[in-house]
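User: Could you write out the 3D structure of this protein bound to 1-O-phosphono-alpha-D-glucopyranose? I've included everything you need below.
Assistant: Certainly. Input first, then the structure.
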Amino acid sequence: MTEQTKFKPVRKAVFPVAGLGTRFLPATKAIPKEMLPIIDRPLIQYAVDEAREAGIDQLIFVTGRGKTAIVEHFDTAYELEDTMRGRDKSLDVLEPTRIQPGNLVTVRQQVPLGLGHAIWCARAIIGDEPFAIFLPDELMIGTPGCMKQMVEAYNETGGNLISVLEVPHEEVSSYGVIDPGQVLDGFGGSLTEVKGLVEKPRLEDAPSNLIISGRYILQPEVMRVLENQGKGAGGEVQLTDAMAKMIGTQPFHAVTFGGKRYDCGSKTGFVEATLALALERPDMADDVRAMARRLLGL
Ligand code: G1P
């Protein structure tokens, strides 16, 4: 990208993928949950596609034991490609899995101490640059994609940005919640100042029903905060707590994404995403609609 901006560009993204995926057992006993497919792409592919659309090409996976399939997915599969060539099959379908040599790095999170700890594990690779974070469970679909929208906002504001969305008030305790400040002019109401952040608040303590929805652009200083971050909600080192300490020291804004979000960390969210994306695909939509009608007895 040659576009000049006022701020250091966001080139790196961290994907915390060390989680055990216990909610999807036994499916995730031998397969990382990030490799479960929504139709014909594993979840992680959607997040990587979203990163690349936003001009981010250096991928950092924070992995753990049993997660090698994720790295394999983004490697060259020589035998497969050779066989496909021999059968005159197009290799275009593998294009999204190709990463420029050197642009995929993994670090291990040896013990599951929380999201904040997972991100901190990538500190040596982040160095002194702003970076994005993608929680692949959160599937964000839209044009432009969520991260692209955030990078565009970042080019105006600099500092730290998180994506947010509204949920019914009774659901806030499952998420990080923001205390919203002023809405900024010129972004169609989609950019809000962040005055405070709280991870998994009790209903009565929640400052709003705007939750952090799994996309972040953060300044590298957060790594220094995480270094000394004690345990928070759920006895885990929380990224939200470290971000909260950055408010007031650097700009901090929330982007309300204009597209759709699917919570693929839950089984119903996963089914919803599968159905919704199938209904968007020209090669499947008619058949799937007819099938859904049949199943619902309509
Ligand atoms: C994490 C974050 C939380 C955020 C959520 C989005 O929570 O800590 O702030 O709202 O992801 O899915 P987790 O789902 O890991 O408990």
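The pocket of 1-O-phosphono-alpha-D-glucopyranose is lined by residues 115, 135, 138, 175-176, 199, 211-214, 238-240 (CB under 6 Å).
User: Perfect, thank you.
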